[in-house]
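Example 3.2
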Amino acid sequence: MTVARTICLGFLAVIAVGTILLMMPFSTSNGTWDNLIVALFTSTSAVCVTGLSVVDPGTHFSFWGQLFIALLAQIGGLGYMTTTTFLILLIGRKFDMRQKIAIQQALDRPGMSGSSQVIRSIIATTLIFEITGVLLLLPAFVPQYGWSQGLWLAIFHSINAWNNAGFSLFKDNLIGYQSSFLVVFTVTMLIIFGGIGYQVIMEMYLWLRDRILRKTHNQTFSLDFKVATSTTIILLVIGLVAFFCIEIRNPETFGSLNFRDQILVAWFQSVTPRTAGFNTIDISKMTTAGLFITIALMFIGASPGGTGGGMKTTTLRVLTSCTKAILQGKEDVLLYDRKIAINLILKAVGVLVGSVATVILATILISLTDPRLDFIQILFEVVSAFATVGLSTGITASISTAAKLILILSMYVGRVGVLLLMSAVLGDPRPTRIHYPEENLLVG
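Structure, written as tokens:
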């Protein structure tokens, strides 16, 4: 029972419990037992913080069903190991070396020291951001829906935004609030900070604290911070400009809006593919170019240590730095004047190959089970599921049961990670002292 297997089986256990809870009559609005596939799909989507749904969560599920979805998304966003470790800390128990190693692998941390403090800071950060999101969303929802319903809408959407889940209780998602600066600003900020990683947030907090207290020593930002923040900003700007330029002539998305709303919608559409799943326009009405840009942003995803999925921003930067080094004829891969270790490069290549292989296989299988669907729709749905995004062109509810099971598996693989899942299947690698001779090979 390796650490990787513990994490993978833990997510499966949470999905199973969520499926049972969502099937219960008190979880549905009509008071009857829910369909197994619907409950399984919804539970997997919530635990894997995806947001894809085969039913309308706002009308299909009762308050209890919606509460279970929010709790599952919270557990999925924090991660199985973070949640269980926090529960262990609550009851006053100390965790052993095995659990520290599990936390290190689950959070992709360089060391095991200070694990309990890290868990506490993650929980505190989550509560601070989610409560702030609730307070900011209240003025948008309470005047229209009243205090009780408005408060619940604020809580539900704040949890889903921070955890990059993307479930919405509105039939049109957030299209009705596409011109609301308050809703767009709050949701996008929660998405960005939730997906950028806890370590980055903590470093940002320490830097601001030192500036406010006017401490003399200069804080040195880690390489993780520099790569995650710079890559995120670059992708957000590229997405904003690309969507604005491509969709501005499309009357069904941007074309019929005024300039202010076009900027808001373009900004939101640039943020949400970073594994969030909310939308302020009808995704099915986007141009083919807009859909492909969204697919690319979804595949890249968020940053390590955050609540989002995808290939991750750091993986993209390592691979692009490798390409730059080859083009410049250098043997070392550098990022911000730091040499990248060969094991990190191999890991990045493994993540890319595994991710592409999973997307290709799932796309082929759904093309066989549902041949009536367009290729772009299938690819969009598969990448959205694997990268745990939740955006859809509107085909999720109409696909076959076999296709839904394929998407369920894709969401699970995307959440636990390709390499972690393979490690769970194959077991821990055995050390060897055998070294093989080196030989050249024609590449490229």
